[in-house]
Amino acid sequence: MYQKTTLDNGLRVVTAPMPAAKSVAVMVMVAAGSRYETRETNGIAHFAEHMFFKGTEKRPTAKDISAEVDGIGGEFNAFTSKEYTGYYIKCAAEHRTLALDVLADQILHSKFDAEELEREKGVIIEELNMYVDTPRDHVDSVYDHLLFGDQPLGWDIIGTKETIRAAGRQTFLDYLDAWYAPRRIVVGAAGAVNGDFLSEVESQFGSLEDRSTGEHAPVEVKQDAARVSLETRDSDQAHLRLGVRGLPTDHPDRYVMQVMSAILGGGMSSRLFIEVRERQGLAYYVFGHHSSYHDAGTLFSQAGVDIERIDLAVSTIVGEFAKLAAEPVEDDELRRTKNFLKGRLVLQLEDPRGLLAFGLRRETLEDRLVEPEEVLERIEAVTADDIQRLARDTIRQEGLNFGLVGPFDDDQRFLDLLHV
Predict the structure, then answer these.
(1) What does the pLDDT read at residue 76?
(2) Which of 210, 249, 254, 376 is the most exposed place for a label (fewest CB within 10 A)?
(3) Same-domain status, 319 and 247
(4) What is the mean pLDDT of residues 180-192?
């Protein structure tokens, strides 16, 4: 399905033709995100993502860029994570060359105009305020800081008001010079990939000189007891995350963890959804998820719960974690969960952008393309014994972490509930 070519400068080109497609997605993904920052530059990866939309020499203003993409009816966006950043345009197949030209122009020729830079600081600070004022989003920050502390994986992707205000043009140029090297960039197209895409990418990016970039600092993890972090604020609902240390991206048990996470909270028939919401009515939303990084990971549950019954909610969620280690999964539940995961993957891959994001993320983070068939086979191979073994390895009393945003200030109250 995927084809990969590496240019002389180390930049990788990935294509995934879909014969029946009438549209095409073009994407540039870079192995650089917020964990590649220093304390002083925290937030610069996300800030740079914004600035790439503010004008180039060829397209001097934000309106010039957006009007060109709007003029072909294209979808246009970007995203920043802790380990990678992506930029994409999805459009009718006939406009693929223009889509690549716009993306290349943004990434290679953005002006980082001083006036635009100062104006955008206000936009990003308001974006930060929005997240902080939204407990459902902000509990993510509380939990990650508890989990990783004062190191890049524990910092907010968006940065702080101080680092945002302190950023200058040279801050961006230094960051891009340090990390936006060809060997860290993957350019891809999926869908109706007509014409000579490889030659066009080489024409746009081939003149970049290869250079070494170093790597992010390894994460340091030290924990020997359950931990709690509360952010106290008046509210009618408490938003919580409760989790344990998980697995890094390329761990051999990654697919076991994927199935285990889905059993815990991956859909409306998952254990957490049925027990916390349907049977006890403790939350409107509740889910489980596993996040992985190069050298760390976490399996967690998040929920927005009734403050009057929060003790029961926490105990119930802890109980569902403990049950994974204590009891083997029954055959029918395992079968249903595998079908759920495989079905969701198939649906994602029917869209050119989903297919491209799937391939580029693996290539960017693991330096290899993973075909969907391999993922489907690895999910199917997971057994109940695998899940119980992994649950016993990861779900431990001393590894529990609990973050909460709501009207509570007594850490010990919740520590007393964290028993598996």
Answers:
(1) 96
(2) 210
(3) yes
(4) 98
Place of tokens 């001097």: 60
Give φ, ψ of 203 to 5 degrees. Answer: -65, -35
Residues paired with 311 in a beta bridge: none
3 state SS of 81: coil
Boundaries of domain holding 405: 227-415
Taking each helix axis from N to C terminus, what angle separates 114-132 and 169-179, rounded to the nearest 10 degrees? 80
| Pairing relationship of beta strands 185-191 and 12-17 according to DSSP bridges | parallel
Contact 208, 9 (CB under 8 A): yes
Q: Which of 37, 40, 49, 366 is catalytic?
A: 49
Torsion region of 206: left, alpha or beta (phi above 0 gives left; psi -120 to 50 gives alpha): alpha
The pLDDT of residue 355 is 97
Q: Is residue 212 part of a domain?
A: no
**DSSP string across 191-229:** ES--S-HHHHHHHHHTTSPP-----PPPP----SS-EEE
Q: What is the pLDDT of residues 350-382, one digit of tens each?
A: 999 999 999 999 999 999 999 999 999 999 999
Please indicate, yes or no, if residue 321 is contained in any of the structural domains.
Answer: yes
pLDDT number for residue 60: 96
Same domain, 146 and 8: yes
Q: What is the mean pLDDT of residues 237-250?
A: 97
pLDDT band, very low/low/confident/very high, at 194 (cuts 50, 70, 90): confident
Q: Are 164 and 47 in contact (CB under 8 A)?
A: yes
* pLDDT mean across residues, the chain: 97
What is the C-alpha separation between 171 and 151, in angstroms, rounded?
20
Query: Cα(91)–Cα(89) distance, rounded to whole angstroms?
Result: 6
pLDDT at 41: 97
Residue 94 burial (10 A CB sphere; 0-12, 13-18, 19+): middle
Q: How many domains does the chain fold into?
A: 2
Q: How confident is the model at residue 141 (pLDDT cuts 50, 70, 90)?
A: very high
Shared-domain flag, residues 41 and 177? yes
Q: What is the CATH number of the domain that holds 117?
A: 3.30.830.10
Q: What digits encode the pLDDT tens for the residues 49-103?
A: 999 999 999 999 999 999 999 999 999 999 999 999 999 999 999 999 999 999 9
Instruction: State the burial class of residue 238 (Cβ atoms within 10 Å of its Cβ: 0-12, 13-18, 19+).
Output: buried
126 among known catalytic residues: no
Q: Long-range contacts made by residues 193-199, C-beta under 8 angstroms, separation at least 24? A: 193/15, 193/16, 193/17, 193/24, 193/96, 194/24, 194/93, 194/96, 195/96, 195/97, 197/13, 197/15, 197/96, 197/100, 198/5, 198/13, 198/15
